[in-house]
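Backbones bend. Shown next:

***
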Amino acid sequence: MILFTKLFLAHLIGDFLLQPTRWVIHKEAHKIRSKYLYLHILVHFVLTMILLWNLSLWFWVVLLILSHYLIDVAKLYINPWFKNKSIPFFIDQFLHLLVIYACAYTTDVVTHTLTLVQQIDWSLVTAIVFVGFPSSIIMTKLLEGMANKIALDHKSLPNAGKYIGIIERLFVFVFMIMGRWEVIGLLITAKSVFRFNDLKESNSRKLTEYILIGTLLSFGLAIIAGIIYKGGLL
């Protein structure tokens, strides 16, 4: 486990802390000819060797750095194919993490992976999935009649309310299973403060009631999921 942690730490430092934005821009412009691509790989190599501090692992470090280079080059060339630039970014990070995992547990990668899968709390996974998009759809159906009577705010970001709701339910669920009810109260207060100006400017009783019902319903679904999970009913 400590080997994986050190390799992952080296990756985080090399990819995020020690890679300036100008390096990224230069790499995207010049791709495989970019000098910063090779400087970036060198930084990863040095960081990994320092954190491992074990010359006997040099072969795995070279293999890891070579794979990092190939993944980064592939990302530079497929990046223009995607309109949403976050997709190649997350694919790139997932592949790096996969290689780090394979190198860290190379002697028993299959056994270790099977052990991790067997330890998954499927009830927890199911509850987390439920408070995400399924809860959003349930709320949309329940509030559909009210939503038709509320004037749309075209200044809002697309789907912002949906994602805010998902994040707040995840927070409520996590804090609930941790037994930190006071933090849930703080979340309700914080949301009320952020919404205060909108409600004050709109001066709409319907909008106020709609937001209040939506908030209570959102928190309620997360709390119900938490009660079912903690009660072992899932």
DSSP finds twelve helices and no strands in the chain.
